[in-house]
Write a structure and sequence with these properties.
By secondary structure, this protein is α+β, with helices and mostly antiparallel strands. Helices cover 54% and strands 14% of the residues. It has a four-stranded antiparallel beta sheet. Helix 6 runs antiparallel to helix 7 and helix 6 runs antiparallel to helix 9.
């Protein structure tokens, strides 16, 4: 009982003070923690990269998994996971040995496998989030690498996404000013507001390109991603790409309308139609923002 309590406290990063007669003082470098974390990440990457389960993943996708990995120790007889409990993590045995127990409906427990160094379990919970299909118990002192499912919120640059949304909503306001100015026959003023609108749209598109690049670098593809949601990549890139193409089309339309206004050939009706299109594009983004970034 005391041994298991000690392991529980150790995994929770809690230490028990013991009386010590000799005190040794060591001065660690300022970057000791950062170097230790980097060393751990390299070790975990070296363990995960050769596993057949991760062979379809790129190095960037493996690195994304490594950032959510941790080392944990268990003592003999201690359960790592319990059958039926919720889980979203994968365990890789680094040292020691575990057994896999399956409990039947009548309560009978059968050991179906034993896993040693380099072997893993819990992959279905990592990929799909389904409950644990069996219990896993340490047969000796065991150290495992626990790989949690990456948090998609950590991948998105939410402050930047919020600023993108602000830019697009602000551009809708300047477009409204352009329509109002055109209604008063102030065509050059309308053209100036349209240029402000285009600046907001260009800023939005530039940040969207950066967001796409970041997600691709993290391992997101149309047919795969490291976050365990099979349809995320396809739905995200198709929907945001479709919207981005409409923003680009809107910028072309606004550019033509502004040029016609500057040359004296524009009309208030043309400005109003362009404004309706731009407001629609902005409204669609509000729904996309709520769907992908807030839900």
């Amino acid at each position: 009982m005391l041994t298991r309590a000690w392991y529980e406290l150790r995994r929770a990063e809690m230490t028990i003070p013991f009386p010590i007669r000799d005190v040794t003082v060591r001065t660690l470098p300022e970057d000791y923690e950062a170097r230790a974390q980097e060393q751990l990440r390299r070790e975990v990457f070296a363990v995960l990269r050769p596993l057949p389960l991760f062979s379809p993943l790129s190095d960037a996708q493996i690195e994304q998994l490594v950032r959510g990995a941790a080392l944990q120790q268990y003592t003999t007889g201690e359960a790592l996971v319990q059958q039926g409990e919720a889980g979203d993590s994968l365990f890789v045995v680094r040292s020691g040995k575990v057994r896999v127990d399956l409990r039947s409906e009548n309560g009978q427990v059968t050991t179906v496998a034993e896993l040693g160094s380099g072997e893993f379990f819990g992959e279905m919970s990592l990929l799909t989030g389904e409950p644990r299909a069996a219990s896993v118990v340490a047969e000796m002192e065991t150290e495992v690498i626990v790989v949690d499912k990456p948090d998609l919120a950590e991948v998105f640059h939410l402050p930047m996404i919020a600023f993108m949304t602000f830019l697009l909503i602000s551009s809708s306001a300047t477009m409204g000013s352009a329509v109002a100015a055109a209604g008063r026959a102030q065509l050059r003023t309308a053209a100036r507001f349209i240029l402000f609108t285009m600046a907001g749209g260009l800023g939005f598109l530039g940040m969207q390109v950066y967001e796409w690049t970041s997600l691709i670098r993290e391992g997101a593809r149309l047919d795969s991603n490291p976050w365990g949601v099979p349809t995320f990549g396809a739905s995200f890139f198709v929907i945001t790409g479709f919207h981005g193409s409409h923003v680009l089309s809107g910028l072309v339309i606004l550019g033509i309308v502004a040029w016609r206004l500057k040359s004296g050939r524009g009309t208030s009706q043309g400005v109003e139609l362009a404004g309706l299109y731009w407001h629609f594009v902005d409204l669609v983004w509000v729904f996309i923002f709520a769907l992908f970034y807030l839900v």
